[in-house]
TrEMBL record:
Gene3D superfamilies the UniProt entry points to: 3.30.450.200, 3.40.50.11500
Domain of life: Eukaryota
A GO molecular-function descriptor: small GTPase binding
Protein name: DEN5A protein
Entry keywords, A to Z: Guanine-nucleotide releasing factor
InterPro entries per UniProt: cDENN_dom, DEN5A/B, DENN_C, Tripartite_DENN, uDENN_dom
Domain UDENN intervals: 24-284
A GO biological-process term: retrograde transport, endosome to Golgi
Heme listed as a keyword: no
Membrane-crossing residue ranges in chain numbering: none
Length: 284
């Protein structure tokens, strides 16, 4: 039986520099997009511990759900704010395990990956030029009038481009906690503080490994009806577990549902739930 730890795994997903840039087949073919707008296959780079007997690690499911859109590349011209999301893995016996992921961008230091991205852009631009070059007669008329669609197309195809000599390439990376209970706010704070420690110019008070070890092996699940307070990298983290005679744990902000869907849609969804209709939510 599970010993009642707050978290079972700490996982890192991202770019595997050994396998390089592999198209993400699950996201569909998007070769018509510029290389910076394509999705590439992400990998589980590390997990701690390797395995726990009461919660076997599902590498395929965790890898896909940590980064459902695959790897994303950006340059210094793009916004690179971290993004947080959660997911649930439901097993065949109906048991559940919860995942919480923080995705951020870090600079690509591999020269091979940068060169591969540059090569993809050369290929993309060459194909674009072939497909959109006007016939000879049209080219002559364009040059005589000084107004040609080719000029605007050329500008468009260079938009969101990458030049290895000029641009800094960034790639998405994810840190994740796999937990037996859905303490969303506490997990979000843990991951945000770990990310802050990595990106801060000043080193954290203790080595990062000690904080990860603490959350995996020394922080217990709070008993039913009790709250728990433990130390993060930069401050305390608090979570509370409902008692057996209270509503089940729901640690997600209901306000966001109303902000995303609107009051009328939420009322309609609630009505459909009461009438036992099938409900499908579609999201990017």
């Amino acid at each position: 039986s599970a010993p009642g730890r707050f978290a079972d795994y700490f996982v890192i997903c991202g770019l595997d520099t050994e396998t390089g840039l592999e198209p993400d087949e699950l996201s569909g073919e998007n070769f018509d997009q510029t290389p910076l707008r394509r999705t590439f296959k992400s990998k589980v780079l590390a997990r701690y511990p390797e395995n726990v007997e009461w919660n076997p690690f599902d590498q395929d499911a965790v890898g896909m759900l940590c980064m459902p859109k695959g790897l994303a590349f950006k340059t210094q011209a793009d916004s690179r704010e971290p993004q947080f999301h959660s997911f649930i893995i439901t097993r065949e016996d109906g048991s559940r395990t919860f995942g919480f992921s923080l995705t951020f961008f870090e600079e690509v230091t591999s020269k091979q990956i940068c060169s591969a991205m540059q090569t993809l852009y050369h290929m993309h631009n060459a194909e674009y030029d072939i497909l959109h070059t006007p016939p000879t007669n049209d080219r002559d008329s364009c040059s005589s009038t000084g107004d040609c669609n080719g000029t605007s197309i050329s500008k468009l195809q260079r938009f969101n481009s990458y030049d290895i000599s000029r641009d800094t390439l960034y790639v998405s990376k994810c840190i994740c906690l796999i937990t037996p209970m859905s303490f969303m706010k506490a997990c979000k704070k843990v991951l945000e503080q770990l990310h802050q420690a990595v990106t801060s110019p000043q080193p954290p008070p203790l080595p990062l490994e000690s904080y990860i070890y603490n959350i995996l092996y020394e922080v217990p699940l709070p008993p039913a009806g009790r709250s728990l307070k433990f130390s993060g990298v930069y401050g305390p983290i608090i979570c509370q577990r409902p008692s057996t005679n209270e509503l089940p744990l729901f640690d997600f902000p209901v306000k966001e549902v109303f902000e995303l869907l609107g009051v009328e849609n939420v009322v309609q969804l609630f009505t459909c739930a009461l009438l036992e209709f099938q409900i499908l939510l579609y999201s990017q």
